[in-house]
Write a structure and sequence with these properties.
With 729 residues, the chain is mainly β. Among the domains are: 2-184, lipopolysaccharide transport protein A fold; 526-602, no CATH class. The protein is built from six helices and 43 strands. The chain has a 27-stranded mixed β-barrel. Strands 1, 2, 3, 4, 5, 6, 7, 8, 9, 10, 11, 12, 13 and 14 form a 14-stranded antiparallel β-sheet that branches. β20 (228-240) and β21 (243-254) form a beta hairpin. The longest helix is centred in the C-terminal third of the chain and has 10 residues, at 492-501.
Length: 729
């Protein structure tokens, strides 16, 4: 018993009361006047500090606490500080460490220095290194002459900084600032550099501004020494719990020599994009409490030419460059029974000098009543009305309204083995014209008109399922017969039905103008046969999907059999799959479309190969080819957790034109990434000569360096690029 009492007494506790309580635990403690000496595994607890050392000396008068040997400090479980000697003044809240070593537990960033001194949340560090790598032989370090760190804001400032890869100095900067957490704050983002034989030296330095938590602003000034300079910016905001948006804009000015040598259409490139989403605007904006769901989505774009997109980034592989830009705003209100929507669409063709003659839909108004039932679900009906205001600045415009009312009678027979239904479809379209044609069609005028018709659909379908020992088989068959009913038309539709329905008139000079508003789809007396089957394994995972579809026409003077469609999706193994979709034309005895795709994902390989072939069977002209033959491929190989390789190649076989290609590799470790990528990209440009589809081949070499966690890897991680001379198409 005395033995256990002796052991307990040897673990002494000294509790010191000043303004705050300090607890010192040690196996040996002695006190002389106001000096407390502790040794033998000292542990000090003060507020949210937890300190350990071999020896400690505490002065009750000055409140100085000195720690000696294997000093470790853990502050609020956020970072750890180690050293041989530490001095803490609890009254002044000052701390001194020599040597100094700090590890941020969340980011794994460590700082090693000769000494560090801190007061409250501010810490000053002299002559040291910082890295996110293993402290033993780190792959990269940033050496500095001095540094300061704020433990509240988690912001670290380094001065006279030298970046070393192993022992090789690669970069010097007088200042480098970095956040050790993910809090948004104002500062400089990662710069981007590039060299081009045609555009000169490229430099972009993003500036990030985040003064409030509901918005941020990114400004991206750039310079291309031979080509010109410009600035792009992005403003992002969250204006409510149910809405957010962003506004992007940019401007780039070409140098005079570059502008003239490349025959560009515009010396200045500018544009903007505005996106906004709100998932409950009616209740939020009008202070109501509607039970239904409302929403608004806006994506508004404008630019003077495609180079506005091409110049927005140094890495063109991440850009989607098109010759037509769509702006749209969608609004809706939805309940269990009804839907109301309004849609605005505005098109810009970047190959045209003006879009005054481009058709716009401003707006489209829609009302839809969802499927409803009568007679114990045997009678179904829905209702839909849609009005399109199709307008433009010059030439004719129209307000075109469509009404659809399908009524279906359905039942099951033979103990639900056979499902049969009859559908009566009533359709109405009305067109109201306005405006005047700049070049009127001789002998033709646009008259307001209406078109109403009905048609009938009979269908029968069955689906059978059978389970086997290792798989299940589901098979379905559907026959659908469409029969024309009565129709009535006047005005515009009576004047144009025969002319616009005869596709041989497409060669007429006036066909496009006269029939651009005639969009009545012909209803034929025909039958559609659809066969589908599925195979599932024992875990209900799909192995094979197969579909056959055939259309048979009963109209005189038309092709009896439509294209036979075959679709197959076969998961050959867990890592190998094959997809095929093809159409066979009986009249030509040829395939009109064949699409094949093979994917493989195993042994570190991720491969996707595809080929598309299409034939329109139209005559070939100097400006039109009826064939499409396009090959695409992407290959990625992960050798191990450090090395990965990738390649892609896209080729237009019919035009004998390479569309894009890339080849590269990436080396990854816990604290850094390094990669090289060679890329070719065929992009459109707007010039004063040549066709509207003028394009050039951009050829780049991208160098990616990511120092983790000081940098984050993403799709735009390229730090340096070299642009090779362009190839003209």
């Amino acid at each position: 018993m005395l033995k256990y009492v002796f052991l307990v007494l040897s673990l002494l506790l000294v509790t010191v009361y000043a303004d705050d309580k300090v607890e010192i635990y040690s196996s040996s403690v002695n006190s002389q006047e106001n000096i407390v000496n502790a040794s033998g595994g000292v542990t000090v607890v003060y507020k949210d500090y937890f300190l350990t050392a071999d020896k400690a000396v505490y002065n009750r008068i000055t409140q100085d606490l000195e720690l000696f040997g294997h000093v470790r400090v853990n502050h609020d479980k956020k970072y750890k500080v180690l050293g041989k000697y530490a001095k803490l003044n609890l009254a002044k809240k000052e701390r001194y460490f020599k040597p100094f070593y700090m590890l941020d537990a969340k980011s794994d960033v460590w700082i090693s220095a000769n000494e560090g001194q801190a007061k409250a949340q501010e810490m000053n560090i002299k002559s040291g290194s910082v890295s996110g790598c293993n402290p033993i032989n780190p792959l990269w370090t940033m050496d500095f002459s001095s540094s300061d760190y704020n433990s509240d804001s988690k912001w670290l400032n380094l001065y006279n900084t030298r970046l070393y890869i192993y022992d090789i100095p690669v970069l010097y900067t007088p200042y480098f600032g970095y956040s050790l957490d993910t809090t948004r704050r104002t500062g400089l983002l990662k710069p981007s550099f590039g060299i081009s034989s045609t555009e000169g030296f490229y430099y972009e330095q993003p500036i990030y501004i985040a003064e409030q938590n509901w918005w941020d602003l990114e400004i991206d000034p750039q310079i291309r020494t031979t080509r010109g300079k410009g600035v792009y910016s992005t403003f992002r905001f969250v204006d409510s719990p149910v809405s957010h948006g962003e506004f992007k804009t940019g401007y780039f000015k070409e140098n005079e020599n570059y502008f003239l040598q490349n025959n560009l259409q515009n010396q200045s490139h500018y544009g903007f994009n505005f996106k906004y989403t709100n998932t409950n605007p009616l209740n939020q904006w009008f202070n109501v409490n509607l039970e239904g769901q409302s929403g608004i989505y806006a994506d508004i774009n404008h630019m003077n030419d495609v180079d506005y997109i091409n110049l927005s980034s140094n890495n063109t592989t991440n850009l989607a460059t098109a010759t037509q830009v769509l702006s749209r705003v969608n609004m809706f209100y939805n309940t269990n029974d009804d839907y109301i929507g309004a849609y605005f669409k505005y098109y810009e063709d970047l190959t045209l000098q003006t879009n005054d003659n481009t058709l716009q839909k401003l707006p489209t108004i829609q009302y839809h009543h969802y499927l409803d039932t009568f007679l114990k679900d045997h009678l179904l009906y829905s209702f839909d009305v849609q009005s399109n205001n199709i307008q433009r600045i010059i030439n004719k415009k129209v307000v075109q309204t469509d009404v659809n009312l399908p009524v279906t009678l359905q039942t099951s027979l033979f103990d639900e083995y056979l499902n049969v239904s009859y559908k009566a479809n009533i359709y109405l379209q009305n067109s109201q014209f306005s405006g005047h044609e700049q070049t009127p069609i001789s002998g033709f005028t646009y008259n307001n008109g209406s078109y109403i018709r009905n048609y009938h659909t009979l269908s029968a379908s069955t689906q059978l399922t059978r389970s086997y020992k290792n798989f299940s088989h589901v098979m379905g068959l559907e026959l659908q017969y469409n029969r024309k009913g009565w129709s009535q038309k006047d005005g515009f539709y009576e004047d144009n039905e025969a002319y616009c329905s005869d596709f041989t008139n497409k060669s007429d000079a006036t066909y496009a103008q006269r029939c651009e508003f005639y969009n009545i789809a012909a209803i034929q007396n025909d039958m559609q046969l659809n066969f589908t089957q599925y195979f599932y394994d024992a875990s209900a995972k799909e192995i094979l999907y197969h579909r056959l579809s055939q259309n048979i026409s009963y109209e005189s003077g038309t092709q009896r059999y439509g294209d036979l469609e075959n679709e197959l999706d076969y998961k050959i193994t867990s890592f190998l799959s094959y997809y095929n979709n093809m159409f066979y034309n009986y009249d030509q005895n040829k395939f009109s479309k064949i699409f094949n795709q093979v994917s493989f994902n195993k042994y570190g390989f991720n491969v996707l190969l595809s080929h598309l072939f299409k034939d329109t069977f139209l005559p070939k002209t100097p400006t039109y080819t009826p064939f499409t033959s396009y090959f695409t491929s992407t290959i990625k190989y992960t050798y191990n957790k450090h090395y990965s390789y990738n390649a892609s190649y896209n080729y237009d076989i019919e035009l004998k034109e390479r569309k894009s290609m890339s080849l590269g590799f990436m080396y990854q470790k816990r604290c850094w990434e390094f990669g090289i990528q060679y890329t070719e990209n065929n992009r459109p440009v707007l010039t004063t000569i040549g066709s509207a589809s003028s394009s050039v081949y951009d050829r780049y070499i991208y160098l990616t360096i990511v120092l983790k966690p000081l940098m984050q890897a993403n799709a735009n991680s390229s730090l340096l690029s070299y642009k090779l001379p362009n190839e003209k198409k």
